[in-house]
Amino acid sequence: MTERIEFNGVPASHGIGIGKAFILEERNSDVNPEKIHEEDIDYNLEKCTRAFSKLKSEFQHLKNESEGEVADIVDAQIETLKDPELKKSILRKIKEERYEAEYAIFSTLNEFIHIMENSDASWLNDRTIDLMTIRDQLIDAAKNRSRDESIEENSVVFATAISPTKMIELSRSHIAGVVMQKGGLTSHAVILSQSLDIPCIISAKWKNKRIKNGEDIIIDGDEGTVVVRPKEKEEVHYARLKREQQKNYKKELEIVEKPSKTKCGAHFLLQANVEFLEELPRIKTHGAEGVGLLRTETILFQKTGFDLEAQLDFYRKVVEASGDKPVTIRLFDAGGDKLLEDAETESNPFLGWRGIRMLLDQNELLTNQLKAIYILSGEYPGRIKLLVPMVSCNSEIEKLKENISSIKEELKSENTNFDDNLPLGVMVEVPSVALMADRLAKLVDFFSIGTNDLTQYTLAVDRGNEKISTLYQPFHPAVWKLIRMTKEGADQYGIPVTVCGEMASKPKAAACLMGLGITNLSMTTSALPKVKSMLCNHSLSEMQKLAEDVSESNSPDEVISLLEGFGS
Amino acid sequence: MVKKTVTVKNEAGLHARPSSALVKTASKYDSDFYISMYGYKVNGKSILGVMTLAAECGAEMELILEGRDEKEALDEISQLFENEFELH
Questions:
Q1: Is the Cα torsion angle B6, B10, B11, B13 positive or negative in sign?
Q2: Which of A115, A146, A246, B82 has the most C-beta neighbours closer than 10 Å?
Q3: Can you give the pLDDT at residue A76?
Q4: Which runs of consecutive H residues, i.e. helices, occur in A1-40?
Q5: Which of B23, B24, B52 shows the shortest C-beta gap to A115?
Q6: Structure letter (DSSP) for residue A338
Q7: Are B13 and B56 in contact (CB under 8 A)?
Q8: Hey, how many other C-beta atoms are within 10 angstroms of the C-beta on A470?
Q9: Distance in Å, alpha carbon of A80 to nearest chain B alpha carbon
Q10: What is the rounded distance in angstroms from the CA atom of residue A270 to the CA atom of residue A326?
Q11: Using CA atoms, how far apart are residues A206 and A224, in angstroms rounded to an integer?
């Protein structure tokens, strides 16, 4: 098995990665239920204790270097390591059942994992991945395999799936890229890989390819290509491509300093989509003029959703990092694939209890978040905007406004300052809202189009479903038509429109959006320079011509070829 | 030995964060601490044990403490339930 192989996955984070294979899972394959001799019991007990304290100090270290939600996740892991029942069971398996330390750890953790997986509480099911991580890390520590030593710089990491904390940890080891067997384009790990500039490919079936640790790998995060054991001329080719990309990237970053104006002088506004504190330093370096979309679900999943101070703390960090620029905070968009812990399993979660639908039912959750945002608006007047997810009809906005009124009354009675004119906007991600934009526009202060969900709901294609992934066509003319309708509806009442979906992060699609008159775009920070460079180098009339042609297209292919032909 | 029946008042139930607060508080005391619920008894100092109870809002559980500081421990722990585990 030394010949070259090549296969594809879904490109998730751009860039070329060249390095040696590092397979995350393969490390624990040699745990066997072998019985040990009596004289080896003490050695195994000691090995186990050593593994626990080693991992505990590693976690402690990681916690000290992290903040916010990452620190909370790590703290929960430390708490698990302190669990007396866990330790008791492992030690009993060694002492009484005479299993070696690794197997005692393996089978004990699996028992807990099994309970969690079979629980009716979905939040508990979600915790299993954390326990699996701890299990594997404990076994590594018992075997005295250091993760820090084994993940060398420029490794291309192959994994089934990667947790957000793991992605942050990997970025600190300066890896060259990530290939995941599973994964959705909107998963936390993928969003992080983009903002940390780690090339990433998902849904890549690498497990049957017999890749071994240390083998030469090239991945292309723009094409979704994985090359194992590449030929020499290929290495040369990709190394050159990578150098070119880096050179272009540096050049692109130069554009950050230039004014946001088209070739003919028309102004535009580029902002950042933010979810994790780790992404904040890039707001400045990549030239974002504020945060156009702050996702807040992370707070909810870290269980701090009900805690006013923890919420405020998170928001303040984001606002401070944005300099004097505006920040649009989106209310919790939970539900769909991002399940709340007490949510019941639904047969159609994407068409179910999510976003504003859930918030209006969960009064305490909604009230708390609104209160936090209004208090914040008093601290930073004129800089905060409020965005509502998953709206599908006017009455949802009317109900929300009632909630807002009572929050304002409450704050007034407490003599707390707030911004009385806090702009209220809705996400346009359901076709009904785009179709009724002309009626909804008089109720709100701005629209923000979420193109990922709008595409999914317009085409009736679950974007997480691999079987129909080819039907997920973000450039379908129907999507463009709805975007145009939204803009026209907004224009009737003079309210601004932003696009904060993936479409905004594709330079040529961004040019087309500009052509439609949408001058506010918000995107993953890594895409900002190339989008800015595209918009700066073309005139508005060129972009308007593109938008007109796209609007008259009959198929996604036609749109794609129009976009590809633009500017070249 | 002291015992007391308490009710979970948190809207989201006794999920990861309150469980962690409960275990942290209990671990400050020497006394043994058990939680009895649905006919199961778990070690109240074990975060995995407490979490796997998956106690929902409204669930009743019996706190059982035994040891030299059992009374103080019971007071502080029942207070946590009373305050819905306000963590800051």
A1: negative
A2: A115
A3: 77
A4: none
A5: B52
A6: B
A7: yes
A8: 8
A9: 6
A10: 11
A11: 12
Q: How far is CA A270 from the centre of its chain?
A: 19
The sign one gets for the Cα dihedral A112, A113, A118, A123 is: positive
CB A190 within 8 A of CB A200: yes
Res A70: pLDDT: 61
Asked if residue A393 lies in contact with residue A432, where contact means CB atoms within 8 angstroms, the answer is yes
Kind plus residue range of the DSSP H or E element containing A81: helix A68-81
At A397 the pLDDT is 96
Asked if A121 lies within 8 A of B24 by C-beta distance, the reply is no
Other CB atoms within a 10 A radius of the CB of residue A375 amount to 19
Cβ atoms A196, A164 nearer than 8 A: no
**Cβ atoms within 10 A of the Cβ of A51, count?**
23
Q: What domains lie within chain A, and their CATH numbers?
A: 5-25+149-248 (3.50.30.10), 38-143 (1.10.274.10), 258-538 (3.20.20.60)
Q: Which two tokens stand for residue A520?
A: 């506010």
C-beta of residue A138 within 8 angstroms of C-beta of residue A123: no
Q: Which amino acid is at A258?
A: K
Assigned superfamily of B2-83:
HPr-like (3.30.1340.10)
- Note whether A401 and A393 are within 8 A (CB): no
Chain A to chain B Cβ contacts (< 8 Å)? 72
Alpha-carbon distance A493 to A477, whole Å? 25
Q: What is the pTM of this model?
A: 0.63
Please check if A316 is assigned to a binding site.
no
pLDDT at A284: 87
C-alpha–C-alpha distance, residues B66 and B31, integer Å = 5
User: Which residues between 6 and 35 in chain B have a beta carbon less than 8 angstroms from any beta carbon of chain A?
Assistant: 10-13, 15-17, 20, 23-24, 27
Query: Residue ranges of the domains in chain B?
Result: 2-83
Q: State the sign of the Cα–Cα–Cα–Cα dihedral A305, A310, A316, A318.
A: negative
| CA–CA distance, A529 with A181 (Å, rounded to integer) | 30
Q: Which tokens in the block code for residue A254?
A: 């130069």
- Which strands, in side-by-side order, build the sheet including A216-220? A5-8, A225-228, A216-220, A16-23, A155-159, A177-180, A200-202, A10-13
What is the Cα–Cα distance from A232 to A217, expressed in whole angstroms?
12
Maximum alpha-carbon separation in chain A = 84
3-class SS at A524?
strand
Tokens 């599908």 found at: A392
- pLDDT below 50 — which residues of chain A? 26, 28-29, 148-149
Q: What is the DSSP pairing of strand A155-159 with strand A327-330? A: unpaired
Establish whether this prediction's ipTM goes over 0.85. Answer: no
The whole-angstrom distance between residue A54's C-alpha and the CA centroid of its chain comes to 30
Tokens 């003079």: give the residue. Answer: A494
- Judging contacts by C-beta atoms under 8 Å, the chain A residues touching residue B56 are 121, 342
Instruction: Output the DSSP codes for B8-54.
Output: ---TT-S-HHHHHHHHHHHHTSSSEEEEEETTEEEETT-HHHHHHT-
Best CA proximity match to A198, nearest among A225, A221, A216 = A221
